[in-house]
Design brief:
Low-confidence stretches: 1-12
Radius of gyration: 23 Å
Mean pLDDT: 86
Structural class: alpha+beta
Order of helices and strands: HHEEEEHHHHH
Helix content: 25-40%
Strand content: 5-15%
């Protein structure tokens, strides 16, 4: 809730001349108090991924996916923005169709694309790393040839979670920007 001292003028030694619109202020105080009574306050997470070691809640952008262990159903709960997560919310807003996504990923389902398949599998598996004794992994894909699909596979893997143009880092990103994004992305893959 909101600290009542912040909203109250009772203990304040200032006079009404300092606050010429006290009727308006009183109205605001009343509205805030009513909202506090009627609204359940939520938790705003500062990173994406698992909320704790029970692995029943996963934060992805503006949504918290909450597993009901009894029924197996997943409930979608709003995640309140914070100063560090707010700018990433649009990144995780779904666009396009599920069928098109499956079609794109299906391109890599052919012989000889094993490294590409590994990269896409790592994108799906990144949130599972927290459940192991291995807390991080790094995969580096190199080929002296261009046009073999390294970047395409990386973007396809990033696209599992959101907009790959926003998820994949840029060569101009500073070290601080990379570390900040890594912290906010939490259990998600970091490209």
């Amino acid at each position: 809730g909101i600290d009542e001292d912040v909203l109250s003028f009772e203990d304040d030694e200032s006079s009404e001349e300092d606050y010429p619109n006290t009727q308006f202020n009183g109205c605001i105080d009343f509205l805030v108090q009513e909202l506090q009574k009627s609204c359940k306050s939520g938790i705003a997470y500062r990173r994406f991924g698992w909320t704790d070691e029970s692995y029943t809640e996963f934060v992805l952008g503006r949504n918290i996916l909450k597993l009901n262990k009894g029924s197996g159903a997943v409930e979608v709960i709003p995640n309140a923005p914070t100063s560090v997560t707010d700018k990433y919310f649009p990144v995780f807003t779904p666009h396009g169709s599920r069928e098109k996504c499956i079609d794109i990923l299906g391109f890599f389902n052919q012989p000889g694309m094993y490294a590409h398949q590994f990269q896409i599998g790592a994108g799906f598996g990144a949130p599972l790393m927290r459940m192991t004794d291995i807390y991080a992994a790094l995969a580096h894909f190199f080929s002296p040839e261009s046009g073999v699909g390294k970047t395409t596979a990386m973007r396809a893997s990033a696209g599992i979670w959101g907009n790959p143009k926003e998820i994949v880092g840029k060569s101009t990103d500073t070290t601080n920007a990379k570390l900040h994004k890594s912290q906010v992305f939490g259990d998600l893959p970091n490209y």
